[in-house]
Amino acid sequence: MNFGLILFFLVKGLEISAPIAFAALGAVFSERSGVVNIALEGIMIVTSFTIVWASLALNSIWMGLFFAVIAGMLIALIHAVVSVTFKVDQIVSGVAINILAFGLARFLSQKVFGQETQTPTNPHLFPQLLGINSMAFVLIPIAIIAWFVLYRTVFGLRLRTVGENPEAGDTLGLNVLGLRYAGVIISGAMCGFSAATLFPSQWISGMTAGRGYIALAAMIFGRWDPIGAILASLLFGYADTFRIMFETKIPIPSQFVQMFPYILAVVVLAGMVGKARAPAADGKPYEKGED
Amino acid sequence: MPVIKFKFNKYKLLELFAPVAGFIASIIVLLIIVIAVGESPGKSLVAIYKFSLSSSAKVATILSMSIPLFFAGIAVAFAFQSGVFNIGVEGQYYFGGLVGAMAGIYLHLPAFIHIPVVVLFSMLGGALWALIPAILKVTKNVHEVITTIMFNSIALAFVNYLVNGPLSGLGKGKSLEPQTAKIQSTALFGKLNGAFRFLGWNVPDYVYLDYSLIVAIIIGFLVWFVLFRMRYGFEIRAVGTSLDVSKYAGIKVKRVQLAAFILSGALGGLIGLQEIFAIRGYYTYSIASGLGFDGIAIALIGKNSPLGVVFAAVLFAFLKQAGYGLQFYTAVPNSVIYVITGLMILFIVVINEVVAAYIRALRKKEAV
After folding, report:
1. Is B337 on the interface with A (CB under 8 A)?
2. Angle at A19 between CA A15 and CA A20, to 5 degrees
3. How many C-beta neighbours within 10 Å does residue B142 have?
4. What are the pLDDT digits (tens) for B84-119?
5. Residues of A with CB under 8 A from a CB of B
């Protein structure tokens, strides 16, 4: 066996999994607080544009990352206002934001760079490590922090409480809406990291290619748990890496290889009956009792 | 009891407020964007008018564009009525269109049978593509939003494979876009332009007002009839309103949702009719994309009612033309229309919630 190739496959797989994993990690926070965030796809479109835009404008990828995180939080904020404060169906809000984000990135690209479907290439990149974007490795400490925050801090406990039983949380004096805002905005911020690991060299319309939705599937498959979500993301990421690296060597039509991660997602979701349970109040707006 | 009737109307009127206010609010945002970009709002409105309503040809174009949008909207709306969120309409029309095209290419029938047959096969294909997500939803409780999105991607790759491979209609060495063989003339949709001209509406030849318009009218009526005049439609709406209440009422919730999901896919299969059977005359995987997602917006704006979907589809066609007008005459890019569409949905649903809360408060007051 070629060990160089295996090592490259392992490392490359991490790089390809990272954008999905960051978004899935964010989704865990949003959903554990009780808000389904299908807007991840749209948020990712905007952050992946912003990182290129800000890097080019400020000559620094770190500034690019900073503004991508901010942009992600802002779009997530829209989702929070609409679905938490105004109690609109969370999926409807997410779908609308995805439409809006698709147009917004193209609109900005046209206005800033004079091209609607792609930006110029961005020469400011993150340092490379073992031949891949070093930001992919940042996933590991962030995953640990996410786990710690969710299970070992007061904030995490409160977040999970309002996702499971907002009435009880409210009775205990927790700020249900505030905590849900926090959950959603964290998911937006994580999409900034997704952008940092997706393709910070250039923004091309359509480049997110449904990764936001895959992240959501990964989060569900990972049973609403940070570590589970990351492992599920790695499954999708490595499946895709395998496709990219060996597509030409596999004797079946490339379109079937392309379908593989999606079929995998469906099979995986279908196969986990009864084993997983969403947070009890996930997807339900919280109505304070009036009487 | 005239008093109750009066109250009912007042609430109905309030419910209409949201779409109208949402539309107006998003047009205001559009004008703010126009100003921010440094264009004159007046010039932009003229540009929109020129591309949308300035001549009977432009109006006919909007009607033509609204046909596939109507199918997309009614497909999503039908599932919505039963509480199913079918985001997979995109994949359903890719596959449905292909199955319909197969019937148009390989079956030999006289035109008066062939045309209904391709319509039914398109529906069959769309229904088939909705089948697995529908079954997974009702048997294993797998959320349809995720599965249908996955099935969209699978459909795209699958029809790409079929059109490039086994179903390719291209001879060797031709450098044309991959496509199927030509659809037989007996299955092609003729135009109604002549009929409209006879009725005094001057529709030019390049506009496609074809048989798919008739299909749309029939489908719209049928969906209305099923939803509001049949027991099954009542069950669909009951399930969509409250799952728990429906269960207590003895409605077989899963069966209702399964059927609504599959029928929604069948309706989605019709989206490609115009492009495949009237405009192109063959199938290719690059038929207009994104209509499934437009359908979600249309269903939301039309509040899932057949008539609402008609208005929303025309509105959407108008917005698309408005975008082209802006692109053509001003420095405002076409993509602004997506921003406006997204905002319009958000405005409408938010205003809806506010109005609903207001109505609840009103009712409470009256009850006291």
Report:
1. yes
2. 110
3. 23
4. 999 899 999 999 999 999 999 999 999 999 999 999
5. 38, 78, 82, 86-89, 91-93, 95-104, 106-107, 110-111, 116, 210, 213, 216-217, 220, 253, 255-256, 258-259, 262-263, 265-266, 269-270, 273
Domain, as residue range, for B175: 66-319
Count up the domains in chain B and report the number.
Answer: 1
- The verdict on residue B132 lying in a domain is yes
Token couple for B315? 């509105």
Q: Residue with structure tokens 């995720």?
A: B146
Shortest CA distance from A84: residue in chain B: B350
Q: What is the pLDDT of residue B2?
A: 43
Q: Can you give the CATH number for the domain in which B153 is found? A: 1.10.3470
The string of pLDDT tens digits covering residues A18-76 is 999 999 999 999 999 999 999 999 999 999 999 999 999 999 999 999 999 999 999 99
| B312 touches A at CB < 8 Å | no
Residue type, A2: N
In a domain, B43, yes or no: no
Give residues with Cβ within 8 angstroms of B276, minimum separation 6. Answer: B97, B100, B101, B104, B183, B282, B283, B287
- Which candidate, B146, B101, B148, places its Cα nearest to that of B264? B148
CA B159 to chain centre: 21
B355 and A CB contact within 8 Å: no
Using the CB atoms, write b or e for B71-85: b if 16+ within 10 Å.
Answer: bbbbbbbbbbbbbbb
Would the CB atoms of A265 and B146 count as touching at under 8 Å? yes
- Name the nearest CA neighbour of B287 among B166, B177, B125: B177
Residues A285, A81 contacting (CB under 8 angstroms): no
Residue B159 lies in a domain: yes
Which residue is closest to B138 within chain A, CA to CA?
A: A270
Residues B280 and B309: their CA atoms lie apart, in Å, by 26
| Contact between A240 and A16 (Cβ < 8 Å) | yes
At B14-46, the pLDDT tens digits run 777 888 899 899 999 999 999 998 888 888 889
The pLDDT tens digits for B288-306 are 888 888 898 899 888 899 9
**CB distance B145–A82 less than 8 Å?**
no
* Residues A21, B149: Cα–Cα separation, whole Å: 18
B1 assigned to some structural domain: no
Positive or negative, the CA dihedral A267, A16, A258, A249 is negative
**Residue of A283, A38, A91, A45 lying closest to A180 (CA atoms):** A283
DSSP state of B186: G
Does pTM top 0.95 for this prediction?
no
What is the complex's ipTM, to 2 decimals?
Answer: 0.90
Q: How many CA atoms lie within 13 A of B300 on its CB side?
A: 32
B220's CB contacts (< 8 A; 6+ apart) are B70, B74, B306, B309, B310
* B159 touches B289 (CB < 8 A): no
The verdict on a CB contact (< 8 Å) between A103 and B341 is yes
Burial per residue of B238-270, b for 16 or more beta-carbon CB atoms within 10 angstroms, e otherwise: bbbeeeeebeeeebebeebbbbbbbbbbbbbbb
DSSP string, B121-146: HHHHHHHHHHHHHHHHHHHH---HHH
- Domains of chain A, first to last: 16-270 (1.10.3470)
- Given phi > 0 = left and psi -120 to 50 = alpha, else beta, which region is A125? beta
Joined together, the tokens standing for residue A99 give 């439409």
